[in-house]
Specification:
This protein is mainly α and about 280 residues long. The protein is built from 13 helices and no strands. The model is unreliable at about 1-25 (pLDDT under 50).
Length: about 280
């Protein structure tokens, strides 16, 4: 009887075990900040690596740190907005740390390069706001949110190039190439994964967007703004989209799709970084 009462009130020999269990189950702020979606890592890191490889600068490195701070703040922000559950307290700490890192790094960029470049962040901020608005409504996996998030990160190489002293045209061309990689990829992956789940979804938007990306890159290459290798790569991505959205891709698992895209991402960054010439 005493043992039952002790267990029920959390007093007695069971208390340390219960406390240890609760402490073990309560997530730390670092775990809370870590995004759960594996694909988001590639969408965030690829543009930053590409931008810094093509247009390295101290200010660009600081902006990359600020971007990562904002990237890791996304999940804690949503958890704080919802304000419930055992993750609320560590989420608040994670949000504070990530926000301070992002603000300090952004302040360093302004110190190094002044404030005139901030206008280049407007497209990133606008697209990021669309994603955050959707994410706070638990619609972070809607097509609007995913395309906006991918486009926000994909435009960052243009900002990094501008910070490194590239001309406006060259910076926009780099951003266009990155957009041609990421936006069609998001639509392709969404279509492929939903098809795996027997969801009726048309492949047309993914194929048409990949085709538009290829054509746009081709026109930029003809004008001398991007290397021919960029056309080859977007052509490869177009072929991947058309082929793997057909019967050939019907047996792919989500893990296989992720591995393929990770490999294509490494190839894309390496080839563009090696063939890009500053203008």
């Amino acid at each position: 009887m005493t043992g039952v009462k002790a267990a029920g009130t959390g007093i007695g020999h069971n208390a340390p075990l219960d406390t240890m269990t609760l402490q073990h189950e309560r997530p730390g702020w670092i775990a809370t900040a870590r995004p759960r979606e594996h694909g988001s890592w590639s969408l965030a890191l690829e543009p930053l690596v590409l931008g810094l490889a093509v247009a390295p600068s101290g200010a660009g490195l600081a902006l990359a740190v600020a971007t990562l701070g904002a990237f890791f703040a996304r999940r804690p922000l949503r958890l704080c907005w919802e304000g419930a559950g055992p993750e609320a307290a560590p989420a608040a700490r994670a949000l504070l740390v990530c926000s301070l890192v992002a603000a300090a790094a952004l302040g360093l960029v302004v110190t190094l390069n002044g404030a005139a470049w901030l206008v280049w962040l407007l497209p990133v901020a606008a697209l990021g706001a669309v994603f955050i608005f959707q994410d706070l409504r638990r619609q972070g996996r809607s097509v609007t949110a995913e395309v906006a998030g991918a486009a926000a990160f994909a435009f960052l190489p243009a900002v990094l190039a501008r910070l490194a002293g590239f001309s406006a045209g060259a910076a926009l061309a780099l951003g266009a190439v990155c957009l041609a990689r990421h936006v069609p990829t998001v639509l392709y992956v969404r279509t492929r994964v939903r098809a795996q789940k027997a969801t009726a979804v048309s492949p047309a938007p993914a194929v048409l967007t990949a085709g538009l990306a290829f054509f746009s890159t081709y026109m930029l290459a003809r004008a001398g703004w991007v290397p021919v290798a960029a056309v080859v790569l977007t052509g490869l991505l177009l072929g991947r989209t058309g082929w793997l959205l057909g019967p050939a891709g019907s047996r792919l698992t989500a893990r296989s799709i992720g591995l393929i895209e990770a490999g294509l991402g490494v190839l894309f960054v390496a080839v563009i970084a090696l063939t890009w010439t500053r203008a």
